[in-house]
Write a structure and sequence with these properties.
This protein is an all-alpha fold and 167 residues long. It has 8 helices and no strands.
């Protein structure tokens, strides 16, 4: 069964090539990049809509940016399909943006996040990969700002590193 996001992207790629004969890339190449964009912007728009309806839009925006930045710098396991990634990302953003936890629990999560970052990324840190340092700075700053959204999103993201593709 074809992934719905990939099927839409392939149809759009074929239409684009039919509209403009100057496009020389293959249908699959165009569809690949379109599918990634559809997935990303779909997650952003649907998450923002859910945040607006539930009254958690500021937390939702923070969750979107935190997931995007942490995913960019740490990598992690990929869902088997773009649709699964779509649903999982919206779920993480929606749940984490509505969380409010006591400061002691948040500090514990920050400590766990530091441990996971070091544990799963020892090899990358040894090679001088700066991205992991940026996430470490965000985790450290969160110890001061005490954002439940940032702490929980980074925790979920770091848990995807176990056995996953790290970039």
């Amino acid at each position: 069964m074809t992934d719905p996001i990939e099927a839409i992207a392939l149809k759009l790629a074929r239409k684009a090539k039919a509209w403009d004969d100057r496009i020389t890339a293959s249908d699959d190449d165009i569809a690949y990049y379109l599918a990634i964009e559809i997935n990303f912007w779909g997650v952003v728009m649907i998450s923002a809509a859910i945040g607006a309806v539930t009254g958690t839009l500021p937390g939702t925006i923070i969750a979107i940016f935190t997931l995007w930045i942490s995913r960019f710098y740490t990598g992690g396991a990929h869902a088997p399909t773009l649709s699964a990634c779509f649903v999982f990302s919206i779920f993480v953003i929606t749940v984490c943006s509505s969380m409010d936890m006591p400061n002691i629990l948040l500090q514990l999560i920050n400590i766990i996040n530091c441990g996971l970052l070091i544990w799963y990324n020892k090899r990358r840190l040894e090679t001088g990969d700066q991205g992991r340092i940026y996430i470490g700075i965000i985790i450290s700053a969160n110890a001061l700002f005490l954002s439940s959204v940032v702490g929980s999103v980074i925790l979920v993201q770091l848990l995807t590193l176990q056995g996953g593709d790290t970039k």
